[in-house]
Amino acid sequence: MKRFGTLFIMVIMICFSNTAIAAVKIKLGVVTKPGSAQNIVAEKFQELIEQRSKTNIKVQIFHSGSLGSETEILQQVQMNTVQMAIVTGGPFDTFDSLASVINYPFLFKNYTQADTILDGPLGAELLKSLEESGFKGLCFSENGFRNLTNNKRPIKRPEDINGLKIRVMVSPIHKAIWQALGANPVPMPWPIYTELKQGVIDGQENPLWVMEIYKFYEIQKYMTLTRHDYSYHIDVASLQWWQTLNAETQKMIQEAMYEAAVFQRKDNRSKNAARLKFLKEKGMQVEEHPDIDAFRSRVAGFKDMDIYQDPKVQALLIKILDATK
After folding, report:
1. CATH topology agreement for domains 21-144+232-271 and 147-229+274-323
2. Topology of the domain covering 21-144+232-271
3. Which of 2, 18, 59, 275 is deepest in the core (most CB within 10 A)?
């Protein structure tokens, strides 16, 4: 009888240890196609979390806009019909005005500065604020520094942009940036290849990987390395869903997503030199040394914009501007 009791306890302990991480199914939304920056994060996260949970946590990735635009994906995350998403920073502006701080033009000088701030207390402050809009902010991955392309003329100074129809994300701050630079900004969800090809828009602005993966070299002749904005992703979960998870599961998901983000940032940056060489070989005319000071001067007064006048937003902006001097 004693041997039976000992065996029974051992069986119970084994069963408990195998179910400490409860069975969880995650729908994860991205708007881009496989091979894109967002997808690299998503696939690495899927690999890590399924391995570490011994497949108790299963991730289904919905890519290529199958769930709609980035704004629509975020709305589904709020409602917990989608549990997680990797979304470009711009669309968060319409959910949380604090997100507009990181979209401030020419904010970061380099990747090291971006990592230091976004992985530190100031980035944590932004992630925490997203809870007011129904998101659990996990960490930041990246698109990279954005550059301008167009099919009309070479661009070296801001006045060369005058009148160009430039596609921008659905984001008040991104629209304001290109208005200040003299363009006619056209907010438009992703993808935009057809609109560029048909001449509905003259140009767009994105990191180098976008020009390569989406073959913009086929339809855009000129590129200018403006590096006007460090484009980040916010990797988020539904707060409603997150609060149903036990602490151990939360910790495992948080750590796996951060590791996936760091992996993706390193991967993205290691490929940029080869991407630039490739785009030139494909015939794009690249202005590598535009008059950045002239571009900066056009947006120097952005801290006084209405979008930054909320006291909470203004306070974070000042702290980040001080940290990036």
Report:
1. yes
2. D-Maltodextrin-Binding Protein; domain 2 (3.40.190)
3. 59
Single-letter amino acid, residue 92 = F
User: What stretches of the chain adopt beta strand conformation (E)?
Assistant: 24-29, 57-62, 84-88, 135-145, 147-150, 165-168, 184-187, 203-206, 222-224, 230-238, 285-287
- Helix 247-270, helix 272-281: angle, nearest 10: 50
Q: Residue 77: which of 88, 67, 66, 85 has the closest Cα?
A: 85
147-229+274-323: in CATH 3.40.190.170: yes
Q: Of 47, 45, 44, 56, which is closest to residue 17 (Cα–Cα)?
A: 56
β-pair partners for 145:
230
Distance CA 78, CA 133 (A): 7
CA of 189: how far to CAs of 51, 61, 95, 262, in Å?
34, 20, 16, 27
| Those residues with Cβ within 8 angstroms of residue 184's Cβ, 6 or more apart along the chain or in another chain | 163, 164, 165, 166, 178
Residues 6+ apart with CB under 8 A from 198: none
pLDDT tens per residue across span 220-235: 999 999 999 999 999 9
Nearest in space to 166 (alpha carbons), one of 198, 205, 218, 193: 205
Question: Kindly report the CA angle at 224 between 223 and 230, in degrees rounded to 5?
Answer: 110
Cα–Cα distance measured from residue 253 to residue 20, given in angstroms and rounded to the nearest whole number: 14
- The answer to whether the CB of 59 falls within 8 A of the CB of 90 is no
Pick from 36, 98, 47: nearest CA to 70: 36
pLDDT tens profile 103-135: 899 999 999 999 999 999 999 999 999 999 999
